[in-house]
Structure formats: C-alpha cells, structure tokens
Write a structure and sequence with these properties.
Blueprint: H1 10-19, E1 30-33, H2 45-66, E2 74-77, H3 78-85, E3 89-91, E4 104-108, E5 111-115, H4 120-129, H5 141-148, H6 153-162, E6 167-169, H7 173-177, H8 180-186, E7 192-197, E8 218-222, H9 227-237, E9 241-246, H10 256-259, E10 263-267, H11 273-283, E11 288-291, H12 305-311, E12 316-321, H13 336-342, H14 345-353, H15 365-388, E13 391-397, H16 398-407, H17 422-425, E14 427-429, E15 436-438, E16 443-445
Parallel strand pairs: 1-2, 8-9, 8-11, 9-10, 11-12, 12-13
Antiparallel strand pairs: 2-16, 3-15, 4-5, 5-6, 7-13, 14-15
Helix pairs in contact: 1-2, 2-3, 2-15, 9-15, 15-16
Length: 469
Amino acid sequence: MISADAKGARPVTEAIWKTGSMPARGLADLTLTGDRPLLSTSFHVGVAAQSSIACAALAAASLGELRGVPRQEVGVDMHDAEMECTAWFSIDGVVPRAWAPLSGLYPCADGFVRIHANFDHHRDGVLGLLGIDEDPARVERDALERELAGWKKVAFETAAANAGLVVTAGRSFDEWDAHPQAAAVAALPLFTIERIGDAARRKLPALTDSDQPLGGVRVLDLTRILAGPVCGRSLAAYGAEVMLVNSPRLPNIKAIADTSRGKRSAHIDLTSKQGRERLRQLVKDAHLFVQGYRPGAFARFGFSPEEVAAMCPGIVYVSLSAYGPGGPWSERRGFDSLVQTATGFNVAEAQAAGVDAPRAMPVQILDFASGFLMAFAAQAALHRQLTEGGSWHVRVSLAQTAHWLRQLGRVENNFHGRRPDFAAHAVHYPSGFGDLMAMPHAARFSGASATWRLPSNPPGTDAPAWSDS
C-alpha cells in the first residue's frame, strides 16, 4: 500500500489504476493539482477524494478512446474533489438536515455506540430494544442515554444486529484490528474484478468527437443512500444512460435529489412476479448492473451475479457491501458513519484533535470514495469486456475503503482551518424536487465535459424502460 504522506495523490492514483489493470499510458493524460486537504481532519480525505475521482474520470476517457473518441486530458483539483464529497446541496434555498434527531453517538457503560435512526423503522427498532415505549416523534436523546448507560457497547451492538438494526460499537484502531472482520477485510485488495462467465465482446454505439465517452452505455442503478448512487451519478456525468430503480416499499433520504442528477428514476417492486419480470427485461439490454444491498439479497429474487450474467452474457455486475464479501460481518448492515465508528476512525480523529469525545471525519469519505471506486472498477471491467469478452463481477465495500484510507497515513496539525463556504461553490441544476443547488463534478475533461443531461426527479417519475424502447 502506498502512503500519501509527502507524496500527494499521484502515486495513490497510479496504484488504483494498476489494481484495475487499465492501460498504463492513460495516466499520462492526467493532471492533479493541490497537495493539502481543504477540510479539517487528520486523514487524507483530500487524496482519497482526488485519486478515486481521477481514476473514474480517466477510465471514462480511456473507454472513449477505445470507442474512437480522440484522447482526452483529465484534470482534478484536490479541493474541488473534497467539495464534491461534502454532499452539500440545497432545495429551494434550504439545506436539508443530514441526520435525524436520534441518530448519532451515545455514551454507554464502557465506551460509546453510534445509532443510525434516519429511517423510522430503524429508529423504532432501537427504541423497542431499549424498552422505550413512547411516541417516537416525542422521544428525546436523553431518554436513550439513560437506557444505554446500563449497556456495554458490544452487547448493545450485537443485540441490535440480531434485531436487524443499524448500530455499531465505537472501537479504537487496536480494538478493530483484533476483530475477525478486520482480518477478513485486510486480506482483500481495495476492490476485486472477477470474470464470472464467458461471453463475446459486446459492441457499443459509435461515438462522434463531441460525444461523452460513455454515450450508449446502459446502467441499472439499484442502490440507495450515498455510495452506490454516487457511482451511478458519476457514470451519468460521463454520458451513460443510468436508470435508478427504487422499490416503492422502501424509504429514501433527502440526498436523492442530489445523487439522482442525470438519471431516469423508476419504481420496480421485486416482491412481485411482474416486477421481477420487468427487471429481467431491462437486464437483457444493460451493460452495467449496480446494486448496493446486503450480500445475497438479490439472489433471493433471482438476480445473483451469475443469474444476471446468464440473462445478459457480457454484463458487468457491481456489488457494494458494508463489510466485504467474507468474514463474520459480511451480511451485516452498515453505512459510512457506522463503518467509521466500527473501524476506529472516530477515536483516532478525536485523539488527533486533542478532544475526548469521539469525532467523525468532516465528510462521509467512505461513501464517496467507494462510489467513485465503484465507477472506476465498473469501467475497468467494461474495458476488459470490450477487449477480451466475458461477464464480470466487481466487488467494493465501505470497510475495504476504510482499510485503504487508513493505509494512506495521517495529516498533522490540520484542525485549525475555517469551514469553507460550501454554497459559494455550488451550481444550479434543474430538478423535479425544486430549485437544486449542488456541487459540480470535480473532474475536468479537455473534450466533452462531465455534465448531467437529465434533471434529478423523484422516484417513480419515469417508466422502467430504456430510452429507445
């Protein structure tokens, strides 16, 4: 693993590029600017953001060249990359609250736990586990604190996991390293690309010099929250036709207004026979199938990687998980904030800042870096498909990204900067949610720019059909 200390993002970017087995000459077309993070943190979030975005954008340029578009130069500034990863946006002039009132860190008998209560069913499950029988809308944080005072952190984490809830115990790096899941994650590369079937090389529509490099590439985006949607949004910025498929049965977070830029947005209920058949029809004409549910969840509906490859030989199937494909936590639910807490970052960040209370990183970098790494690895697999054939399976996890980020080293004395004016960097985008101001994509192309051709729209706005169907 290459440390970012005193070296910046270039060697880190080159290492990611090599992991994806992409043509080495593509790196000659990349310019990276900036060498110190904008945001206050002891971790190299700037390098993580810049290198992952650079690889995703450069892969798009390489695919464009493979399809006849002249070679493009790609540039990424570190501060622009960090700004994109802040996830800052506003709707009609209002910045939505990122966290529900009961989400966050809580002290307990021997440390602390983090509770994710942004969805009502997760919140209500935690209240039930703690024996709090009140109107959930009226419960205050101190009620949870009183009950948690009698719990040990790992005992509560285990009880919550057994109940299907989203809670994790706060650990130090040493505590995490002693956990068997840490060993399972450490044994993996940053991401994996595996051939899962034989298939002829697929043909994509011809491109003109002014076309975006992913024009004609069809992406099924079956993801939620941040990492997966960021992957789909990135691919859409490079010209792919991305169809976001949501279940009408599941809630979404407000950030969907931001992460749905450039996508069509359809509803499909996979619990119904008609819904499963509709998705099968869409798969037959797709190039990428991106899903972010727990390992094995899609197999229950008949959409495992191997089953999808049988429906559409030559497809690239991308899987995102919280803790990776192996180990005792492989099927455990998790989000960026929970994985940060479990893997030691909250404790380490607090120690570096000289404070007692656990401290989160200033951005959900595990989500964003994972999303951009998904976009890169998906394109790297597509590059292999177009040059050698085959069906491919890409695996990315938040925990693998966390392990990688930790290996990049630390930034010293970086807690004294002012909070940037995020609104000053935002751009207006059309939206079916209202007047959307959001961060632009950090990558700059010398040819067709990275931009979104479609506005973000609420789930179910579009029919579940490709544009020329």
